[in-house]
TrEMBL record, chains A, B:
Cleavable signal peptide: none
Protein name as it appears in the record: STAS domain-containing protein
Gene3D superfamilies, per database record: STAS domain (3.30.750.24)
Membrane topology: Multi-pass membrane protein
Stretches that traverse the bilayer: 125-142, 154-175, 187-205, 233-250, 262-284, 324-344, 356-378, 390-408, 413-432, 452-480
InterPro entries noted in UniProt: S04_transporter_CS, SLC26A/SulP_dom, SLC26A/SulP_fam, STAS_dom, STAS_dom_sf
Biological source species: Arabis alpina
Amino acid sequence: MSSKNATQYHKVEIPPPQPFLKSLKNTLNEILFADDPFRKIRNESKTSKKIKLGLIHVFPILEWARDYKLEYLKSDLISGITIASLAIPQGISYAQLANLPPILGLYSSFVPPLVYAIMGSSRDLAVGTVAVASLLTAAMLGKEVNAVENPKLYLHLAFTATFFAGLMQLCLGLLRLGFVVEILSHAAIVGFMGGAATVVCLQQLKGLLGLRHFTHSTDIVSVLRSIFSQFHMWRWESGVLGCCFLFFLLTTKYISKKRPKLFWISAMSPLVSVIFGSLFVYFIHAQFHGVQIIGELKKGINPPSITHLVFTSHYVTLALKTGIITGVIALAEGIAVGRSFAMYKNYNVDGNKEMIAFGMMNILGSFASCYLTTGPFSRSAVNYNAGCKTAVSNVVMAFAVAITLLFLTPLFFYTPLVVLSSIIITAMLGLIDYEAAINLYKLDKFDFFVCLSAYFGVVFGTIEIGLMLSVGISVMRLLLFVGRPKIYVMGNIQNTEIFRNIEQYPQANTLSGLIILHIDGPIYFANSSYLRDRIGRWIDEEEDKLRKNGEISLQYIILDMSAVGNIDTSGISMLEEVNKIMGRRDLKLVIANPGAEVMKKLSKSKFIESIGKDWIYLTVAEAAAACDFILHTAKPDSPAKVSGIPQLNNV
Amino acid sequence: MSSKNATQYHKVEIPPPQPFLKSLKNTLNEILFADDPFRKIRNESKTSKKIKLGLIHVFPILEWARDYKLEYLKSDLISGITIASLAIPQGISYAQLANLPPILGLYSSFVPPLVYAIMGSSRDLAVGTVAVASLLTAAMLGKEVNAVENPKLYLHLAFTATFFAGLMQLCLGLLRLGFVVEILSHAAIVGFMGGAATVVCLQQLKGLLGLRHFTHSTDIVSVLRSIFSQFHMWRWESGVLGCCFLFFLLTTKYISKKRPKLFWISAMSPLVSVIFGSLFVYFIHAQFHGVQIIGELKKGINPPSITHLVFTSHYVTLALKTGIITGVIALAEGIAVGRSFAMYKNYNVDGNKEMIAFGMMNILGSFASCYLTTGPFSRSAVNYNAGCKTAVSNVVMAFAVAITLLFLTPLFFYTPLVVLSSIIITAMLGLIDYEAAINLYKLDKFDFFVCLSAYFGVVFGTIEIGLMLSVGISVMRLLLFVGRPKIYVMGNIQNTEIFRNIEQYPQANTLSGLIILHIDGPIYFANSSYLRDRIGRWIDEEEDKLRKNGEISLQYIILDMSAVGNIDTSGISMLEEVNKIMGRRDLKLVIANPGAEVMKKLSKSKFIESIGKDWIYLTVAEAAAACDFILHTAKPDSPAKVSGIPQLNNV
């Protein structure tokens, strides 16, 4: 390495002290207001403008409605009608999945989209119910209340759960606790969604095979057992019809996937299936040959349901639990979808604001006979592809659905259930994202493991088990990162003053007589014992090696603290302990580049005094140069003792 | 900054690929065998020697017994008898605290120390029961089984809990899961111990005031209410006697603290108190004047209790829960004590081996009428001060206790309970380590908060609540560190190529046209949204500032990844997203010094291709130099576009 004059050392600074309250405020700010949402409002000087910006902050419609152009309306009309044609059959299907009256699927596509249009900040999100949350509602509520035996209570609990989900979403948004959904990692979501889609497809076998009784469990074992034990009840008519529609739907989907311009083919195909299916049943009276039909749907738009919310019975905890879990799942999907499309079009979606919008739309929805809604990926993608410009497409969809509710519900009388099952299966197959799973395997084995756990947890256990498993394992990974930080030896890259990991840069040279250890993480109670042991082991191994080769014995241990983000009191005790142990082994501990947080705490403790403040260097290069300098100016047979070294002016 | 020739850039290496199984093995090794306990055995070539070293590994007595010298025996005899004189009154007191027959305290000082002498690796640890675990046993078992109404079941459950505690300790040790106790941070232990000591002292008011009925709750409110509601039952004779002994014990403790050489004064004082107290009662018949006495103690050494273990009744889960919680607490104290004294004398204590020793001693103890034992701090400190050399002092203590059990138990008939209360209070006051708490406040506010939570959780709630609170908050801190990593701007330190945090080094200069951001932690799913928002905010703020000052607009964002220990798939997606967003804002993303783990994953993803591999630099200095070079050679009115930059040979 390049030789250095001992007078060039730089001082390590202790950052200026900050009053406790100020630093607490900063920390809370970083946790809750990382994206500084009020920057614009704060920068504005006039109060009237401030109020106006505040209103826009809460109701984004005020901003985009002002600039709304007539040419947008054409695009929004087309996309609105397209998503309505998808929303109607999908809404009915998902309501059936949730064991709720089919009409609820239509109600849920009327009120919530209108609320979102006023409060939401995404231009591409199309509001509606989702399969996974629907199934989860059925699974959770169904455990305690039978939807067939007690449909009224079940329905009211579904509204209550929706209300609680909305309330929770609203609170998370208002309290800026949006980061709670971050606990669902990408890998966990891939596995969880895949598992849920598999389970939902399995549930559809009931409809496809025309079965009337079915297990309430969602795991694959119970479902298959239920299906094969009813082998004699299978209706081939229903099965054949289902396969035909499935083939049609999958083909249209394939075409649209190959040619994104033909998106409308797959968007329209569910409605086409419903129409053809209904006509088919009507003309050949298939309802008498094993093909189950929807039957009568009530005419008229959403009846109020605010008086049906259940807050007193002992089922309220069930509704609360259901609401919270389904609400979080729905939130995660809705926000991810909004963000993805915003990224394509280069605008911003504020997660916390979206939560408030979702919360309001579910609270108001629960007052108007809707159940849990969010921004489903499939519907939003169709909306985006259809060229929507603003949330007006949601308004168009809402009115199209309202017209259906007012005048067209009788047309669904003959719609065969098997068509709905086919629609659900087609939508679900797209959620089993095996390519993403393969990619996870290639990139990160641990993420793949999380994904698999979520998948198998959902498929062989319950949806909740899958969720808990994936969240638990993901969190364990974070703890493991802190608990077992990497610690590696650094070497000098030839002809430079750069020191790097010798595993990553095998050409880097270690220096004789000293070992440089880089700690790759914070020093906390959870890892201080480990770090102490591991540092000890590095020294032992290095000494063994030197002894074998008959080289100069170890004299200095340089700890590179560049990557040590923080240290707690257990960590400081550990460093003091390491320093004492080394002192007894005639080794000198040297610290390189402690960061602001670490330096602040070390300076408050007595650690700096005990190692000597001259032994803290700004860079690894300077620390190594200083040690090297002492090593080679001291006589080889009398190793430089700590007390005897020349004073360096690095302070 | 010093100007650099563009040809000097160094390549960032991708570490050589490792087979999955090998890297998994390495990871597991780091988690479970961080201290490489079998190094000596592995390095040995002969099988016979390997077996010998293996036996020594399991039974450390084989090693030190060989080198045992007669001169050690004198020291061990003195210290053994000293700790026995402390162990007898303390054992009886703590057994009473656990609502167990007093004789159990003596039994527990006979068998377990012998087991530990054979298997333990600490030379200074003195084995015995501890106050906190005793109280915890009483609190947990007492919730479901009343010790007064059903003493037999209560006793058997205590044995069973001890068995389970030992089994868990053994399993943790064998599976090398010793790091589980690391979840108790230093701060949590300070608060928890202080709280437990406060609670134990409060409990002693029962004995001091001669009360016969007392609450089963441990929180301060219930205890004070129980005491003051029985005001008319207070016995002044008992109170006066207690205060006298308390004064005596505290004085002797104070003397020993001031003059460590006089350690024997405080070590002997409990026994002296017991003797004087018993004589006092005997001669003035104080037992008829409100002074409660121990009464009859059975003669003879430990009766077997293996047949009393309860595995079938429905209380087994209670015993299991009690065993696990008390076992972990006992383990944490024992290992910390062993380590502390080992550090003073410069030898090593292997936590996992200690766990096996503790586990065996509790399992065998539970077969021989002992309840939970560990290495209490007070007794071990006396042992150390008395000059013990090896675990023979434990053997001496065990035999001294055995002689007491065989011949001297009748002497304790008249021992007043109030003396035992005084002994406990004196021991407990030493555990309220307010100085450590003040130190925590100075060093680390968060640790202080953890400490306070533990303290108040124990004092106002229950011991379990305090424990859960402190562990929960400590773990939350770890998650918060990962969830909200620091991200700061770096500047150049004049006349060097060193870049540092401009908050810590206010003299560091930022460069115009580029911003250097240092990410101080891993990039995981839990922080990727935050980092994206935060990077965006840094850019917004920087652009606002530049616009105000009319300076050159921002062109480059350099991300210093030196401290990014790892990245997961969510993190990679975030980087890709940031890169896309920046591309649209005409900004160029540059990466500096990605570590081995990060580089490996980035190279497997398409991220490197999308930012261009020429934009990854080995150091911040090189990245900054390259950007600066392009900025100042390109015309100011036509910013260097990504496609138009000169090719740098840094690959």
